[in-house]
Design goal:
2 copies of one chain form a homodimer. The first copy, chain A, is an alpha/beta fold. Chain A is 29% helix and 26% strand.
Chain lengths: 515, 515
Amino acid sequence: MYITQSLHQMLQQDPHRPLTVYGDRIRTVAESASRVSRLAGGLRALGVASGDRVAILSLNSDRYHEYLLAVPWADAVITPVNTRWSVVEIATALRESRARVLLVDDTFNSIAEELQEQCPELTTVVHCGDEACPPGMADYEQLIADSEPVEDARRGGDALFGLFYTGGTSGSPKGVMISHNNIMISALGSLATCGFISPWGRLLHVAPMFHLADIGVWSMAMLASSAHVILPAFVPRDTLKAIAEHQVTDALLVPTMMQMIVDLPEASSYDLSSVTNVLYGTSPISEKLLQRIRGTFSGAAFMSAYGMTELSPIATILTDADHETPELRRSAGRSAAHSEVRIVDADDNELPRGSVGEVVVRGDHMMLGYWQREEETAQALRGGWMHTGDGGYMDENGYVFIVDRIKDMIVSGGENVYSIEVENALAHHPAVSACAVIGIPDEQWGEKVHAVVVLHPDHQPGAAELQDFCRKTIAGYKVPRSFAFVDSLPLSGAGKILKRELRKQYWPQEGRQVN
Amino acid sequence: MYITQSLHQMLQQDPHRPLTVYGDRIRTVAESASRVSRLAGGLRALGVASGDRVAILSLNSDRYHEYLLAVPWADAVITPVNTRWSVVEIATALRESRARVLLVDDTFNSIAEELQEQCPELTTVVHCGDEACPPGMADYEQLIADSEPVEDARRGGDALFGLFYTGGTSGSPKGVMISHNNIMISALGSLATCGFISPWGRLLHVAPMFHLADIGVWSMAMLASSAHVILPAFVPRDTLKAIAEHQVTDALLVPTMMQMIVDLPEASSYDLSSVTNVLYGTSPISEKLLQRIRGTFSGAAFMSAYGMTELSPIATILTDADHETPELRRSAGRSAAHSEVRIVDADDNELPRGSVGEVVVRGDHMMLGYWQREEETAQALRGGWMHTGDGGYMDENGYVFIVDRIKDMIVSGGENVYSIEVENALAHHPAVSACAVIGIPDEQWGEKVHAVVVLHPDHQPGAAELQDFCRKTIAGYKVPRSFAFVDSLPLSGAGKILKRELRKQYWPQEGRQVN
């Protein structure tokens, strides 16, 4: 299969229906396809050859959608860049992928010059914003207007569809190579497992389109002949307004977005009854928030998925029916139709149900590998299974429960301690503003539980008070033995705490192996 | 992907739930998987090597289901044989496929000896019936009891899953090579397009399991974690009883079966409310029958699919919503998510909407080819499209309407005449018991419309009366110019009229090209 297949299908079946909605701009399937074929022609005219990488650094827009189709149409490889990264990180990804062309919108055109200086192979920057095209850049609309349409390359199967740079928390960014079949199998398998997207509906894009979570749902919506209602970024009020105005049927939301929606005083004044599916990624979501957001979208099925970029991206799904069982709401769900999931020990032996080990996943949605990193690819895909790095267990019915990142698990006196559990306990103390729990060397216990804590300025409890507090909710061996009080925690570009930075000072270079 | 993947998934998620129901015999997922792995071991012990063909000649049963899984588990190739064929036809398929092992049930064990005489490479016949094992055969249950389980070969992707002999109406049977990916893509794509099968439901098997129509739906049900309620063959009363007793949720029925169900006086006394999906293949179904069967299964969605063995098998789907529009009920539906469909002329140029040409289909569900028939494979798949041999047109919204087999279309004086339309007109005459319409050579018109008719014994109208009758419903140029009255029409094993036999006497050998 190939990613543009659905566009041809919609063109055959309903060319005059709206395909993208972005502010006041609505484009039909036929318009969109015509622009895509000419944008592909334009990319070719800019010297983009088969297999070349074409990068984008932009907030969400209908042009992002066109980019996702035009690049494969031209037989090139999409390379979406994380908009939250620093210039240095972005330049590293562009240099490593050897992107020839970069698309930037109004928000990011100011750093384009700096990126070009740092990336000698980047020959052209295309301005895909709505403001005037800055000097030295090619104009997106002009490129479409001036270019003849080209035939769709219709490359598919194992050909490279995209390079997705993942990031930050475990070393320098790696380019994940995803083929056409990878993403199509994840999309078809997820649709087959639980519907996931309403056929001929309208999908909301407020999650960033550079991320494979959104592109994955986008690819499902393409297969389902949906329209795409696209907002530049998540703003609670704008989101509800767009849902009501465009009768959105499907929405991918992360828990932070859900929280902001339910906290909006006038939320109930919008007509949200068109929403039939709310999709969210597996990340801790409180019972209370889930209950409130289900009240807000009272007509919707709620489904969550667990996966990662390397899995194109979906491995397991928690269906709406699963949500009825309280204990399952903490679960990542069960393997989707296309996906095999196991829990294994450090030697890749499958573990009995209930035992915590690493979650590994196999199937045709497994990435081709990491771009130009053979060793890391071999390590990640050893034995034919993608090693997720997530620690978890599986219950008797195949439901997967994620407990921690494997490398963040602490083994103290033979007991497993999950840093997340300790962090959750600590975070409930009113004085704790942020915290991270890591294992540090200990002669007696091998590792001991160590907490790095940012306190609220007006409340300064000591270690003993925090230990007592923790002891009320978690077992004694999980309570931090030592504390460091700091002003701030080191964060990745995506806002994740960089535990490896915290560990550095405690572990000698030849010490604890952290990937 | 690979066909046994779903069995492993069910084993992980719900091993103790029933997987097959056959009469009083109910087997759980775990039992079924254990038997499959030992049957695979047994096949290996019988000398079945990787890629060997293992044939089956049997009515439907739970053992048929085990066969469909055990053969790929042993890395061999399923070769289901049409139970309606003559011994000569069956022997031809077995010889051509060089099957080493054949499974037969009680209904067919009487011809096993004859088949073995005609097929020197057939070393073992396994009796998979419920009666005593005839001498000279291996006993299915004994084979399972005596064999150690083997590991699943887990071959998938482009590896050969099955050889499906199609046949009869257009020459000698051809073995269609279907890969694991072929069937999985058709299944995933169809599920993704319109649900098609209820997740965790119960699928009824009354259509013959040797046919890829049933195996295709079976593979979807495997992906959907369904149970299988299996009847040896279609008997109206037994079917309704089984639906009510086992709370069947999904049923594949052909129009003939539907007719027999609605004609059953006590149909309304069965509780059929569990049925949520009724699936049927695209074949002429009257408005009246559709209305009656929708009344019988009043809680069900009705979906029909068009395809062929060479397409694993689904190309287009008419959804339940499509059924609401009267004009669409004659349609074969629109391309499913995995499938590309076009209408082309004899030179493979795409035709405008509304023009009749050949229906061609492309996608990863397209067969690998015909077994040991390179030339016919190249011809069927020329240009990368499967040429279905069906004549049809597409409307403005991508709905496909099948009008006739391309080779049965008659071109008379530059006008296309569809034999089916003329046959439908003729068949309404009370004296006509059966008829077939073909084109025969004509100096003036190129071809002329010729009808071969079987009359009811007590009513013998002449050609003129039949012509007058036709003229009331079809245009003058479509009315048969000549008639032949015969006692019976030549039929294929599957009950289709062999028009090539009828044409033979009219066309010199070097004449009309009929595939």
